[in-house]
């Protein structure tokens, strides 16, 4: 049976529209760093590079090689860790050109360095992408985190973060870092802004006395 993250990993990918505390385990990703406005073409190009590798792994058995431990699965959604430059933090309002980000697509546990090498080799041969050399593969462990489902445009995310921040104060928690993660459950090319679904998450810890 195909592993579908929407069904098998609901705690991580299908939260409710209210804040919740979870523990996110170590996970493997293809990752790509960048700076600037995500509405520009350069951002879309980076997404394309990540998905070309993600699908190269997913389709390996059809290309004649099945990695050890491989199982049928749905490709994971795009995720992003977001921050601001020092100049961006000083601004009175969000300046998208000052955004710093690492976008990523999670990979199943069976993906090893050998699998990654084969994925890169396949993409370079079949559909070369100029940003491939900028993509890295590694693991991240977010640990204790607060997350919530945001429904609406990305520009309206502050209202959801306000609810998450209120949750922290009530539960004696504090953020570890000003960065946050977003998991994109909707295809912005097909879904109107008011109906976009995005998981918002940031790392936390118990307040120190």
TrEMBL record:
Name of one Pfam family that matches: GyrI-like
Residue span, GyrI-like small molecule binding domain: 18-200
Official protein name in the record: GyrI-like small molecule binding domain-containing protein
InterPro entries: GyrI-like (IPR029442), GyrI-like_CCH_Lin2189-like (IPR008319), Reg_factor_effector_dom_sf (IPR011256)
Domain of life: Bacteria
SUPFAM superfamilies on file: Probable bacterial effector-binding domain (SSF55136)
């Amino acid at each position: 049976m195909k592993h579908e993250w929407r069904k098998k990993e609901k705690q991580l990918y299908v939260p409710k529209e209210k804040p919740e505390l979870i523990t996110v385990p170590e996970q493997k990703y293809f990752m790509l760093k960048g700076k600037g406005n995500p509405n520009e073409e350069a951002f879309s190009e980076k997404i394309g590079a990540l998905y070309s590798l993600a699908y190269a792994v997913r389709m390996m058995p059809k290309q004649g090689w099945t990695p050890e431990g491989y199982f049928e699965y749905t490709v994971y959604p795009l995720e992003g860790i977001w921050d601001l430059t020092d100049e961006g933090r000083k601004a009175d309002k969000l300046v998208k050109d000052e955004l710093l980000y690492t976008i990523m697509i999670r990979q199943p546990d069976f993906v090893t360095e050998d699998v990654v090498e084969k994925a890169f080799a396949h993409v370079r041969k079949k559909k070369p992408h100029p940003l491939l050399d900028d993509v890295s593969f590694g693991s991240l462990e977010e640990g204790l985190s607060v997350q919530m489902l945001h429904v609406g445009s990305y520009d309206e995310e502050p209202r959801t973060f306000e609810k998450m921040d209120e949750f922290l104060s009530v539960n004696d928690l504090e953020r570890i870092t000003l960065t946050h993660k977003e998991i994109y459950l909707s295809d912005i090319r097909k879904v109107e802004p008011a109906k976009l679904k995005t998981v918002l998450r940031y790392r936390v810890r118990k307040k120190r006395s």
